[in-house]
């Protein structure tokens, strides 16, 4: 008995030892900083002078700031319109690529390529594509007979749609996830449905979509979390402009924290963002019971 | 019989239409990259000609050397390669050890800890970025590579822990037990059995880690100040400002070079890219 207990304890110690990089990392780089930023959010701190406790003043200031509401609106626009559009696009591409056609692997590769290019270089490319007078997009639009194509990134009205169009180009990753989901659906289900006289439309809504819901759910969860943190495009392509139309939330955090050194205020902003993301994620998790089909037939 | 024939022609027509749609979509996807290539080879003056020409005349190959020289590519690329390489190494070592613990070892509280790992996937990094900045500032690490590399030795990418753990779980436990009976320690099981059997998963983790470190922007932007320590992303972002205007041909040349390693890696290891997404995407 005693020996067994000793063995179990030795096993446990070894387990913690193997996990120790993560445990240490969690405290140093995640949990510690989280508590610190929560604390900072109630303080005034600019790194150079001493820290001052100011209670809820940062939060009050934030909720009274027009810029906060503007940044929040822009970010919600980007999430609420961008994420579903990207999912729809990825799904359509996956469905097309799942048909009996020649050259499937080639098409899959081509559609995937944009997902491997990202970051600043990609942003630079799209600034050039959206260039109003000689950019590729407006050149094509003029060729198609559009006389006054939009100014895109230079226009308050078109800047957000432009960034969303750009993001649609990179849906290859979502496409691959849906494609894998589609290939997991047993062919017999379709055959059985055909015997029962089901048409294409019926099969799509009663078999394909329900069995794809786990992939859809996963893509939405990850898409929403990632989209709330949009930064590089806005920083590199528009610097939040014109007229703050692409001033996204993380750009606001960056400016307050690292341009003006308002560490307390920026921490409060970051915590609000965290709570917003948490809210949206829990909302999706909670709703999933109603629409995600986990049964594999 | 007639009906059968009809159906076959209809199928043929449908597949033709689908191929056509995909072909148009495929061209639309590739056009921006071709446009980038075309611009990168144009003369400064030829960039603004209306209507634009696809084939540059003359072809200015020297745009590339000019652009790379201007962004101080030798130094900037050396920095980025160094940071990326060290970060991949740190990620591979730490996340595989941790994933092994979660897949194989028994310790009280394991489930709760694993749940914690998963929940940190959702944490926006902005919440921890400010205190991390202050912490690095206090210990004098701002404008060094430590903030960009060191955290990776502490398995700070929860997604990759998850991916590896899922893969380790698929390796039959009998393999471990046999090795244990032969007197192997847990570390030997990890090192001699699990790791060699997990090459595909390790490959996926290395690739994902490469992609995210190569393209990382906000962290070097915040933690690095001096131009001699810039990464490729930061140098690219500053290109136009330093130049005084936007030299589109040079900027496209510089951007294309920055994307090249990722595109090349994709063509060499396409299977790993796709598998990585599928594993992480579906078992979630």
How would you describe this structure to a colleague?
The complex is a heterodimer of chains A (297) and B (284). Chain A is mainly α. Chain A folds into two domains: 2-40, no CATH class; 64-291, MetI-like (MetI-like fold, Orthogonal Bundle), CATH 1.10.3720. Chain A has helices spanning 2-40, 57-63, 66-97, 104-116, 119-129, 136-143, 159-168, 172-183, 187-195, 200-228, 232-238, 249-259, 263-291, and strands at residues 43-44, 52-53. Chain A has a two-stranded antiparallel ribbon. In chain A, strand 1 and strand 2 (52-53) form a beta hairpin. The radius of gyration of chain A is 25 Å and the shape is flat. The mean pLDDT of chain A is 90. By secondary structure, chain B is mainly alpha-helical. Chain B folds into two domains: 2-62; 71-237, MetI-like fold. Chain B contains 15 helices and no strands. Chain B is flat and about 75 Å long. Chain B starts with a helix and ends with a helix. The mean pLDDT of chain B is 88. Chains A and B meet through helix 1, helix 3, helix 4, helix 5 and helix 6 of A and helix 1, helix 3, helix 4, helix 5 and helix 10 of B.
Give the topology.
The complex is a heterodimer of chains A (297) and B (284).
Chain A: H1 2-40, E1 43-44, E2 52-53, H2 57-63, H3 66-97, H4 104-116, H5 119-129, H6 136-143, H7 159-168, H8 172-183, H9 187-195, H10 200-228, H11 232-238, H12 249-259, H13 263-291
Antiparallel strand pairs in A: 1-2
Chain B: H1 2-40, H2 62-70, H3 73-104, H4 110-120, H5 126-138, H6 146-149, H7 158-169, H8 173-181, H9 186-197, H10 199-215, H11 218-223, H12 232-237, H13 239-243, H14 248-268, H15 270-282
Helix pairs in contact in B: 1-14, 2-14, 3-7, 3-10, 7-10, 8-9, 10-15
